Amino acid sequence: MTSNHLRTERLVIRPFAARDVEAHVDMMMDERAAAFLSPTGKPRSRAEEWRAAACYLGHWHIRGFGFFSVIDPQTDEWLGRVGPWMPEGWPGLECGWSICPDHWGKGYAPEAAVATIKWTFEKFPDLPRIISVIDPSNANSQAVAKKIGEEKTGEVFPFHDFSLDVWAADREDWLKQFA
Ligand SMILES: CC(C)(COP(=O)(O)OP(=O)(O)OC[C@H]1O[C@@H](n2cnc3c(N)ncnc32)[C@H](O)[C@@H]1OP(=O)(O)O)[C@@H](O)C(=O)NCCC(=O)NCCS
Questions:
Q1: What's the predicted TM-score (pTM) here?
Q2: Which of 75, 83, 67, 68 minimizes the C-alpha distance to 10?
Q3: Can you give the residue range of the structural domain that contains 94?
Q4: How far, in Å, is the centroid of ligand 1 from the Cα of 27?
């Protein structure tokens, strides 16, 4: 059986849990993080972000998978959330990523994304591709997508007032490169 507790060179990666909700809300209160994550592009209230975090917890119960928390094993600090999710109406099984802004630029998102995509392909042997939906102006996220072997597909996903690009990696090509 696929273990839900992953370890990379620098990170502990384990399912998003109730004890992570406060840290997640704190991250979302930062306007740098909210810019591409909140429907308005601005931080929402703590109450709204608490509900959003409850949705991420609920996703694990409904789907059997969901976002993973990324933890620094040296300090036990919560660094962000990365991993698979596919809420109703989504254009495919996505690997998403968000890292607390004070830790940007350390390569944590790509490191955790590779680990969680491996986990996802192992858990779903028939999954033909993994996607990421990314705002065309989100250069940081596009940089992560490129590092982890995704390419822009030309497909577009309308979400709230945004038109998001669908990036994707095909299973066989990806496994050859990263497994
Ligand atoms: C996108 C995100 C997850 C990247 O995480 P990360 O761990 O910093 O990833 P990387 O270290 O690989 O950096 C990715 C790019 O961010 C940019 N970057 C790096 N350090 C940065 C910093 N201190 N400040 C701003 N941007 C920075 C660089 O362009 C970098 O690309 P490069 O390595 O080719 O130069 C992070 O920026 C984030 O959480 N953004 C807000 C949430 C979000 O937009 N999520 C994606 C929604 S689709």
A1: 0.97
A2: 75
A3: 6-178
A4: 14
